[in-house]
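Module 6 notes. Inverse folding takes a fixed backbone as the condition and produces residue identities as the prediction. Think of it as a translation problem where the source language is geometry and the target language is the twenty amino acids. Below is one complete input and output pair. Work through it position by position during the lab.
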């Protein structure tokens, strides 16, 4: 799993020049598709990580410790809410050349 605390992606939206971003790939739409697919992967990974952490709190009987457990659940949820959005992380990774991508159709033409 990825350590999202160490990602230096912005937490808010930034305007970017897609023409310069897509210089490596050569196609703006393909660049957006690569970033979108990576964002989906990050989103799924983050959700499963959050679900796994919250699963620890799943109890079927009520007890006095429930208030304390809810506080821990809230803190975990807040941590994930404060993380940059998946698309911002994916864009940052793409800008830093950390996203592996290939186009099988282009490979066939070579």
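Target side of the pair, the amino acids:
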């Amino acid at each position: 799993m990825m350590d999202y605390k160490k990602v230096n992606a912005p937490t808010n939206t930034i305007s970017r020049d897609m023409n310069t971003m897509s210089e490596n790939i050569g196609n703006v739409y393909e660049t957006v598709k690569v970033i979108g697919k990576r964002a989906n992967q990050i989103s799924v990974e983050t959700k499963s990580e959050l679900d796994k952490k919250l699963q620890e709190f799943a109890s079927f009987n009520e007890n006095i410790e429930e208030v304390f457990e809810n506080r821990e659940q809230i803190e975990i949820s807040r941590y994930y809410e404060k993380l940059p959005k998946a698309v911002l992380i994916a864009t940052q990774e793409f800008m830093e050349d950390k996203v592996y991508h290939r186009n099988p159709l282009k490979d066939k033409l070579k």
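Reference fact for the lab report: The first helix runs from residue 18 to 21.
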